[in-house]
Amino acid sequence: xxxxxxxxxxxxxxxxxxxxxxxxxxxxxxxxxxxxxxxxxxxxxxxxxxxxxxxxxxxxxxxxxxxxxxxxxxxxxxxxxxxxxxxxxxxxxxxxxxxxxxxxxxxxxxxxxxxxxxxxxxxxxxxxxxxxxxxxxxxxxxxxxxxxxxxxxxxxxxxxxxxxxxxxxxxxxxxxxxxxxxxxxxxxxxxxxxxxxxxxxxxxxxxxxxxxxxxxxxxxxxxxxxxxxxxxxxxxxxxxxxxxxxxxxxxxxxxxxxxxxxxxxxxxxxxxxxxxxxxxxxxxxxxxxxxxxxxxxxxxxxxxxxxxxxxxxxxxxxxxxxxxxxxxxxxxxxxxxxxxxxxxxxxxxxxxxxxxxxxxxxxxxxxxxxxxxxxxxxxxxxxxxxxxxxxxxxxxxxxxxxxxxxxxxxxxxxxxxxxxxxxxxxxxxxxxxxxxxxxxxxxxxxxxxxxxxxxxxxxxxxxxxxxxxxxxxxxxxxxxxxxxxxxxxxxx
Length: 492
Hints:
Layout: E1 2-4, E2 7-8, E3 18-22, E4 29-34, H1 38-55, H2 64-76, H3 78-89, H4 93-113, E5 121-122, E6 129-137, E7 140-144, H5 152-163, E8 167-171, H6 177-193, E9 200-203, H7 207-215, E10 219-225, H8 228-240, E11 244-248, E12 253-257, H9 263-275, E13 285-291, H10 295-307, H11 327-341, E14 346-350, E15 367-371, E16 386-392, H12 395-402, E17 407-408, E18 410-414, H13 418-427, E19 432-435, E20 447-448, E21 451-452, E22 459-460, E23 469-477
Parallel strand pairs: 1-4, 7-8, 7-10, 8-9, 10-11, 12-13, 12-18, 13-16, 15-16, 18-19
Antiparallel strand pairs: 2-9, 3-4, 5-6, 6-23, 14-15, 17-21, 20-22
Helix pairs in contact: 2-4, 2-6, 3-4, 3-6, 4-5, 9-10, 12-13
């Protein structure tokens, strides 16, 4: 059994918090580790801060050297990382490979960004004055990630952060420590080669370690991915110290299928949104809102596809869906199904079972539930392949239903009508809105994030880099005469 250190760089903790990580595939022990205590987190953050003082002086175009070497090292370690993700998280190979590609893609994005970090120039109303904006790094960026994307989501944050001149301290999920440790060794090695050994650091542990990172006075920003409850706690703690915060929390995503939709396209896209990562993506489909004229036809096609899903060990090439991450996740799925079966106004159309014949009770059927009258449980995500299905007649009612939950991450509509498509794009209250494609599978070129209880943060592409920097408005008087704006004539 591999033992993972409490932190990188390594500092000895009091060993209060002991964790044993098992594989969701078969229950075999993957590794053990002790969570970093407050003193260890503090020492790591201080080391990262001292490195920030050095790294922030490196001109952005020169940061390309480190990003390029990291890119090549990740590419060379691709198979090792894929194996870690599969064993520890339970993803099929195709998705694990895709996650590594996502990390490589964001590095490519950042390499280009190193030469295009911008500041704007503005005209001044005062003669011989020059006004402009410039951006400065924040300092130490704390990044807390969830189990489902143990490499990709950290990469969105970390590589943008260092591109902007910051250092990073990572608290990975206690459900994916080996993947994080393997990834960190790659990053640490490349940073050391270039003389910035503590540019990217890590502290391992559970919620207590995450709290120490959030509350540490060296962290200037916290980017946290996880549950709404966790995000609320992080936001409140950051607010006390006026820290910047990026939150990526619950999704509860809906897809609307209009009566004129290409049903084969809609079914194929929704199939991935239901089954991908065993329904454990923040962008997984949780609700299907189907026009009454196509409800039965859509369901017939979808059920036939779900009947063909091969569920099992994700390392088997024939398998399309692996296990849920833990016994606790499977128990939650079972509890929700039990509630639904006792609900008079809902009906399980397909699935709803934990599967026998596996070493652990983490394997479940994809599940479709028809809902006639919404109930409170729909407002809370079940992090599993469980989807609530509704009928509608009017597109405005469908959009209202899309917006009816507390979360607002991803949404989609399938239609061949431009009018309906743009009605939806103007009406969805989610951060991500798609037409004729799934809620799942975002590209890194766009900013990623959602509204309401999803947190309102943005990561990855577009101008998300601004979240990792502070804006400075500058005025230069080069004329030698003091003048005031707003035509004020103040006696000197």
